[in-house]
Amino acid sequence: MDRGRRAYTDIMTAPAPDDTSPATQHLLDFVFAEVWQRPGLTRRERRFVTLPCVAAADAEAPMRDHVYAALNSGDLSIDEMREAVLHFAVYAGWPKASRFNMVVDEQWDRIHRERGLPVPPPAPLLPLSTPSDPEARLSVGEQSFKDVNCLPFAPQRDNPFQGAGILNFVFGEMWLRPNLGMKERRLITVACVAFQDSPYPILSHVYAALKSRDISFEEMDELALQFAAHYGWPKGSHLNHVIGEQKERVRAEWAAEGAPVS
Amino acid sequence: MDRGRRAYTDIMTAPAPDDTSPATQHLLDFVFAEVWQRPGLTRRERRFVTLPCVAAADAEAPMRDHVYAALNSGDLSIDEMREAVLHFAVYAGWPKASRFNMVVDEQWDRIHRERGLPVPPPAPLLPLSTPSDPEARLSVGEQSFKDVNCLPFAPQRDNPFQGAGILNFVFGEMWLRPNLGMKERRLITVACVAFQDSPYPILSHVYAALKSRDISFEEMDELALQFAAHYGWPKGSHLNHVIGEQKERVRAEWAAEGAPVS
Amino acid sequence: MDRGRRAYTDIMTAPAPDDTSPATQHLLDFVFAEVWQRPGLTRRERRFVTLPCVAAADAEAPMRDHVYAALNSGDLSIDEMREAVLHFAVYAGWPKASRFNMVVDEQWDRIHRERGLPVPPPAPLLPLSTPSDPEARLSVGEQSFKDVNCLPFAPQRDNPFQGAGILNFVFGEMWLRPNLGMKERRLITVACVAFQDSPYPILSHVYAALKSRDISFEEMDELALQFAAHYGWPKGSHLNHVIGEQKERVRAEWAAEGAPVS
């Protein structure tokens, strides 16, 4: 029990709850004292899985506490956190992201208030690092779609969702922005497709994260446990099943390509 | 019971299920024979509330059946449906929209197969009707944000979620696209913020839909019922509560402005 | 209409809302006056389906009202309610459960305040009824996994999700705790897998609930209706479809085993 309370304090940078309910006791003893302590993913990487889970759940107190902890511990910079909100917006919808964004501002202010420091000005938006011309954005988006998804083709443009949305914005702009690396974007994306759990995106993003070697097989297994512990076992179990299938697929492709099978 | 089956056939353009389970019987007798028949929103308008509900739920068969019915009845054109998928993607996340988009293609093919007709080519994406220059897009986005949200200010740009996301894409491009009117976009948006149910967006979009008079008070009440019947009473009750509060707010503002209080 | 208001008061142990909106009127007349009154599941059993639905929906007022009603009516003891929160945490994720847990404490305090009574101390967590030694926990977890899922095998341990999560915690500890019987745990679990609606868990838990005879075919049909009325028809229709398939499977297995086909 003490182990759970110490683990909570360490991860959340705040005192553990006093509450003795079965739910809280198990949260401390299992999620904090066991899951978060495991090797395979760093504490910083586990935050990129956990933040989408709490933001998706619309649970005010856990969202606030995890945003605070990620920033207060120094595990994420404010620019990384703000970029994570944008990435989350795309994969979980703007309404939930809008609340997440407000919580980030509130907790950033709180941290500076607690430290007696002024809040620094935000990084300027412009200039964008991606092209502005529509034709150029679509071309960049098509290449980025292929790279991120590890696919030899891009969807056709003449469909509003695919053209105006996916190619023009999601891959032509969002995935190419600075402040988050591919590994971090993968962790956020896989967590989001796992709670959204639409059939195709969960396959395609687990596949691409493994195929690109941005996330190793062992890291992906840990991602599934971190996710299940925070978003529930049914969706966790489905993610784990998809991971098993996509590992087989990637292993077979690597073997056929003569690539090293990690 | 016959009333339920006839209503189902009429709305879904397909035979009613034969299944005698309590769940299906209540679906026919309550949702189809009562809710869909009410005045206040047309059948076409009810589809813009129902489609986001079934797409959000990831329930394969209901999504397929409602997409088919909306297109096969002629209530929505294919261009309107495809634009609805993009609008939904923004408010419910791309993974769910990705499946919705595939289902639209499948059902559009099926309708043409059933009719022995070739599938017409899609409308071309380019040229876009919104500016390409980043500064111009942000300016357009700021004005559109104010117009759509009925607010005198726009969020600051130097935040990835607000700048690169909200101003640059959601309001600088997406809300301004052709093929859906403001009323249709409002119906989709309110349904999406209602199932996402993050605290602030649900207030702001219900408020703006009423304040803009794009949706009347009576239409909004019907929207809440149509939503509750398809996405469940807990979120429906919450939406209904928010509607009550926002009606008061809008009535008070109209009174203060000397505007007619509808 | 009076019937709906009386039904609400009886179930919720509080006055019905005065609101005359179409959504509220249909909630009273359909959900309270019809669904909750049906035979097949008791009022207490319907609460184990409804509580996960309102907790998942993150809809503050319905969650508060249903927690209050379940405790205030005496249908659930506080120990059962707290155990239900833990079970829900595992199947719907800790963030949502964390809010549910707070609401339970708030409403338990409110009930005692209204009655002028002191809040009794909570039941002590320790000693646990399950073994602490890791090897013993995994063995117990493997047996419990087989028993609960009605399967002849358990998943392999050497996978973080399956070993550290499923065997060690979910089946090695959680399902074996006191204060909820198997029928109650089944009702909660099926409601949770139905709203999470990942493909495999919904099949496996509906199957196991029927195969174990913890829930009869007729009770399962009522569960689907209670669920659909509270969580929406798209997911309710999907659950109903899965139930139909799993009944066939269980009937065929019982016939092959020479077991009575209920």
Defining key terms:
homotrimer, globular, mainly alpha
Helix content of chain A: 55-70%
Oligomer: homotrimer
The major beta sheet of chain A can be summarized as:
none
Continuous helix count of chain A: 12
Strand content of chain A: under 5%
**Which protein chains make the most extensive interface, counting residues with beta carbons within 8 Å of the other chain's beta carbons?**
A-B, 60 and 60 residues
Task: Look at the helices and sheets of chain A and give the structural class.
Answer: mainly alpha
- Rounded Rg of chain A: 19 Å
End-to-end Cα distance of chain A, whole Å, is: 38 Å
The total of beta strands of chain A comes to 0
Q: Whole-number average pLDDT of chain A?
A: 93
Order of helices and strands of chain A: HHHHHHHHHHHH
Unreliably modeled segments of chain A = none
Q: Please tell me what the overall shape of chain A is.
A: globular
Task: Describe the secondary-structure layout.
3 copies of one chain form a homotrimer.
Chain A (H helix, E strand, L loop, with lengths): L1 H11 L9 H11 L10 H14 L3 H13 L5 H15 L1 H22 L18 H16 L11 H11 L10 H15 L2 H13 L5 H15 L1 H25 L5
Helix pairs in contact in A: 1-2, 3-4, 3-9, 3-11, 4-6, 5-6, 5-9, 7-8, 9-10, 9-11, 10-12, 11-12
